[in-house]
Write a sequence for this structure.
């Protein structure tokens, strides 16, 4: 199992299972699980179904999911990272920008990725060393070099403890980039942010948080598409990073410089 490519059909079927559930039922209940954070009955149904499938197909691999936590005895050597509905707030409001995100992670870096956008009819996959794809078409990150031509998305604002201090950085960054970039967007789902950087629809995304279920699939897509993914200190992104910053390589200096200024 040198590159784990043989597990890609399992990852694709797992997110296809999720796709079918999400399209078949609207959320009937929305429950708060934290400060301005929520879960729907569909999130739970999807995670349970995908966990069941993965447990049957790959019982030796542990699973980390957003809603049910970590299960399995596989340890940290190889593990699935699952977000059953990334963009729950959008989904609960009937906004079609949400995704199913599944990555196979080896240690702290992804080796497989599958992302499905159930309401946009698009799916993305990647395997380490084998490129990134939308459906069967190879995708590439943008080669935008000038910040004035860049379309940049920003991750959601912080909630919970220390949110005010964290959001001061976001507001400063928004003001700085908003005066320089072509456009700034806030999409509300890290999986789509990262998939669209991989596809070249966005030139960068700056997510000043990092949860493996949100980011690990999209991180591999971006890297296999020729983009960079960094932590907030400009080091390569891993599962334990504090932030997820994906971009066209030529935009590394201006974007990381803007972030450093915002953090001062």
């Amino acid at each position: 199992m040198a590159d784990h490519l043989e597990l890609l059909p399992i990852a694709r079927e797992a997110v296809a299972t999720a796709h079918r559930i999400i399209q078949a039922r609207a959320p009937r209940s929305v429950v708060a699980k934290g400060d301005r954070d929520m879960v729907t009955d569909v999130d739970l149904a999807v995670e349970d179904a995908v966990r069941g499938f993965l447990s049957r197909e790959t019982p030796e691999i542990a699973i980390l999911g957003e809603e049910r936590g970590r299960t399995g005895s596989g340890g940290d050597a190889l593990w699935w990272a699952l977000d059953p509905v990334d963009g729950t707030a959008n989904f609960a409001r009937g906004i079609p920008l949400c995704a199913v995100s599944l990555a196979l992670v080896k240690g702290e870096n992804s080796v497989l990725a599958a992302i499905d956008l159930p309401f946009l009819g698009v799916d993305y996959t990647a395997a380490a060393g084998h490129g990134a794809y939308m459906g069967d078409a190879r995708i590439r990150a943008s080669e935008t070099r000038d910040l004035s031509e860049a379309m940049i998305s920003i991750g959601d604002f912080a909630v919970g403890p220390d949110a005010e201090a964290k959001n001061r950085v976001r507001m400063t960054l928004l003001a700085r980039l908003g005066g320089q970039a072509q456009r700034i967007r806030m999409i509300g789902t890290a999986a789509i942010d990262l998939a669209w950087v991989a596809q070249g629809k966005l030139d960068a995304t700056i997510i000043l948080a990092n949860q493996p279920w949100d980011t690990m699939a999209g991180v591999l897509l971006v890297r296999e598409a020729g983009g960079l993914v960094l932590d907030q200190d400009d080091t390569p992104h891993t599962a334990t990073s504090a932030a997820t910053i994906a971009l066209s390589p030529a935009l590394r200096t201006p974007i990381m410089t803007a972030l450093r200024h915002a953090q001062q």
In short: The longest strand covers residues 78-86. DSSP finds seven helices and 15 strands in the chain. The two ends are 45 Å apart (CA to CA).
